[in-house]
Design a protein that fits this description.
Structural class: alpha+beta
Strand content: 15-25%
CATH architecture: 2-Layer Sandwich
Bound molecules: guanosine-5'-monophosphate, zinc ion
CATH class: Alpha Beta
Number of domains: 1
Shape: globular
Largest sheet: 5 strands, antiparallel
Distance between the termini: 42 Å
Radius of gyration: 15 Å
Strand order of the largest sheet: 1-2-3-5-4
CATH topology: HIT family, subunit A
Order of helices and strands: HEEEHEHEH
Number of strands: 5
Number of helices: 4
Amino acid sequence: MCIFCKIVIGEIPNNTVHENDNFLAFHDLYPKAPIHILIIPKEHVDCFQNVPSGTMAKLTTFAQEVATKVGVDKSGYRLITNNGDDGGQEVHHLHFHMLGGGKLKWGHLHDETRKSL
Ligand code: 5GP
Ligand code: ZN
């Protein structure tokens, strides 16, 4: 079982922000911004490339609720998913990073591309 599935069943503790029957939002253990929330479907799906569009439709509403709950709905935030090896995905259970709480830089460019800018 993957670590996020273990979080869903409570085997690994988490700091929950918001939850419903289908999704869970919790604080990232190693935050990369003042606010760094992970949003996951409770049912295991490995990555964005394989998620059904119906799940994404519901996840949209859930993510908007999370943003309101943590107070970044007006100030703004970044919602990203790392998909696969080149995307830098480390946990192979679909998750969206909600980053906010301050101005974010655009810091995830490809190294060679960055050099040519
Ligand atoms: P990825 O690199 O796969 O897009 O992101 C995985 C994220 O999961 C990372 O930001 C990492 O800090 C976070 N993470 C890894 N293990 C745990 C954990 O056990 N608990 C929590 N809350 N976050 C975790
Ligand atoms: Zn999983």
